[in-house]
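Technical annex, item 7. During the second reporting period the consortium partners agreed on a shared format for inverse folding records so that results from different sites could be compared directly. Each record opens with the tokenized structure and is followed by the designed sequence. A conforming record, contributed by the partner at site C, is shown below for reference.
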């Protein structure tokens, strides 16, 4: 398993992962019909850096890192993580999160914030807490889950 900075060609393997997760509508608030061009902008062009986790040359996971807010908040970064459904349960999200924290420090960030974690995404909430993130805010009914309706969104934070 290797984590490396993504290049533009990697997006062809990122796209099916992104598409599946966003189309499900259970964890990310992006429009469920986000097309490939918009996805490329979201995942490859807007972030400061994007990474892929590969095994035997195949992309199994990806994450981005970006500044959460400019100016007086520019010391806090934000990340988003996605793992291919066939590769879940193998610790890939944990590996990417640990990697992203190291990269964040190298880039000069002092803290990491997850802005909008669906409270129903129990595996992610548990993992982030295990890795030292605290729930610092709860937005009642802010995430419109496709089957559970309006559920809370969590703000999670860790000083690095």
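Designed sequence (site C submission):
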């Amino acid at each position: 398993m290797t984590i490396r900075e993504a290049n533009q060609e990697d997006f062809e393997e990122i796209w099916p992962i992104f598409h599946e997760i966003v189309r499900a509508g259970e964890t990310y608030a992006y429009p469920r019909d986000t097309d490939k061009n918009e996805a490329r902008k979201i995942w490859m062009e807007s972030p400061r850096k994007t990474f892929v986790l590969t095994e035997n040359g195949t992309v199994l996971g990806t994450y981005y890192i970006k500044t959460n807010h400019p100016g007086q908040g520019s010391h806090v970064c934000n990340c988003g993580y996605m793992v291919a459904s066939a590769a879940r349960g193998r610790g890939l999200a944990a590996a990417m999160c640990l990697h992203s924290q190291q990269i964040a420090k190298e880039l000069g960030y002092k803290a990491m914030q997850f802005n909008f974690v669906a409270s129903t995404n129990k595996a992610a909430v548990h993992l982030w807490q295990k890795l030292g993130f605290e729930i610092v805010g709860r937005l009642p009914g802010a995430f419109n889950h496709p089957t559970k309706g309006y559920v809370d969104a969590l703000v999670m934070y860790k000083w690095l």
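The longest helix spans residues 92-106. The chain is about 30% helix and 40% strand. All partners now use this format for quarterly exchanges.
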